[in-house]
Amino acid sequence: MTKLVDISLNRPVALFMIFIAILLLGIISLSKLPVELMPNIHLGKITVITYVRGGLSSEDVEERVTKKLEDALGDTSYLRNLVTISKEGESTVIMEFEPEANMDYVSLEVREKLAKIKDKLPREAERPIVFQYGYGEFPIIAVTFTSKHFSPEKLRKILEENVKEKFLRIGGVARIEIVGGREEKIIIEVDEKKLASYNLSLTDVLDVLAVSNINISGGKIELTRGGKNYIIRCLGEFPDVEKINQAGIKTTPEGSIIRIKDIGKAKISYLEPREIGRTNSQHKN
User: Fold this and answer.
1) DSSP 8-state assignment for residue 177
2) Which distant-in-sequence residues (6+ apart) come within 8 Å of 283 by Cβ?
């Protein structure tokens, strides 16, 4: 300690220069220090929610969906705790990780594991939704739209098609999520008597729809003259409900085609509301 004091007294200029250098480094570091109102701090949790169509009971959801998800995700890196919840039409897996876990890599690992078991889940199961919670995930601004002329479903469609893209163009906006108003779905009502009269089953109908409603690549054509390449795509997705009704299921021995409209009807409906919110006593399902 005495030696340090002697050096300070004998070399004041050197000590002053060191002090100035430290002060300058502090000012430079302070100017480059990022400051955020709500820093994106991860909470160390990931939730996987899988909705199941068809009104499956909680026991069936647990046996056919939840257990398969639990087996696939149980060996995820840095996993500390895993909680599963099964209820009618919905399976929830809550994963808690160690503090040293890199949540970006862990989230990627979870998505890869889900992709590997997607074919093992029942047809009624929708695509699992992965939520990675962090302070940056919470909305900064919530805007409510109401209308006296449009239903919540019609208003949602207007926002998705005309408003959402304009908000995304605003500087600093990273993500926009629209909630409220039921999403459209296409349902096919089948007459069991007509189905039996044509010797068909629901599995036959589902198989035809699965292979028909898809776009696939058909390769490419390379032209020797001009050096141009043309990519070929086979478009098979149904553009509207009428095309679904016209889809063929089976050919009779007489050569006639049995179509969807012959055994039932496809129509546009809406998903069942899972939550109900209110703004000024008005519904926003």
Assistant:
1) -
2) 152, 276, 277
Given this model, what pLDDT does residue 264 score? 87
For domain 184-270, give its CATH number from 3.40.50.2300, 3.40.50.1240, 3.30.2090.10, 3.40.30.10. 3.30.2090.10
> If you average pLDDT over every residue of the chain, what do you get?
80
- Helix axis angle for 12-32 and 2-10, nearest 10°, is 100
Using an 8 Å Cβ cutoff, are 276 and 285 in contact?
Answer: yes
Domain parsing of the chain, residue ranges: 42-137, 149-181, 184-270
Q: What is the DSSP string of 43-112?
A: EEEEEEEEEBSS---HHHHIIIIIHHHHHHHTT-TTEEEEEEEEETTEEEEEEEE-TT--HHHHHHHHHH
Long-range contacts of 170-176 (CB under 8 A, 24+ apart): none
